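All the exercises in this workshop are built on plain-text protein records. A record pairs a protein's sequence with a compact description of its fold. The structure tokens are whole numbers drawn from a learned vocabulary of backbone shapes. Once this layout is familiar, the rest of the handout is easier to follow. An example says more than a description, so a record of this kind follows.
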Amino acid sequence: MAAEHGPTAGEYIIHHLTHLQNAKPKAVVDFSVFSFDSLFFSIVLGIVTCFLLWKAARKASSGVPGRFQAAVELLVEMVDSQAKGIVHNAESRKFVAPMALTIFVWIFLLNAMDLLPVDLLPFLWEKIYAAAGHDPHHAYLRVVPTADLSITMGLSVSVLLICLYYNVKIKGLGGWIHELFTAPFGNHWALYPFNFAMQMIEFIAKTVSHGMRLFGNMYAGELIFLLIALMGGAWSLSATGIGLAIGHIIAGAVWSIFHILIITLQAFVFMMLALVYLGQAHDHH
């Protein structure tokens, strides 16, 4: 009988990059397929985000703030100043500024899942899956929702819908439709088709790039963590094996520290682009 062996490097990466889904996609875009792992972690961390912001608001006082309150106040002031500089409508900022704050905290927490050991939650899920009588080799689980294109595109489409709402609210339905056909080239009947086409291209390009930027960075970060994990999995009682183990520890620590900057920056960039797009929705052409 052949001896059982562990997965190859390729099988290990493919397993970790496979979502827990209700079915296999039948096309590149298949709206009947749901990634349960991404949805679960997104919803749980969304609840955590709301709880943290609620707790900060509840414990806010005029006295000497604690560390948590001071950190939240600093974050709120940063987001509020950015919102004031981009969205000049004070009434709109009552919704836009809290939304931007929620976006930043939520996406930061989604990104921060990448800092967990890559095998920790998948290992626990395999044990649960096996205890339920299923094959643990099919216990797929991805824990970084922002490394799932469906999540990041869902966020960017949500921003697009809010932008469309403010376009209509600020300019009126007739004014927005007029702008669709008269900007950016001018108000002339011969230019109407080109203006409309450019407006549609702009909406699509902004939405796709908004979601793809976050997805690409987080997917790459997740993949690098998997490659570093493979270094540790290849250790043995030899000079090469010990060198790989030491390299795994050093590379993992260095990349984790650097990744803290990446996950923060990506949350900030997504928030800022959302503010910029909403600011553009308030501008008249």
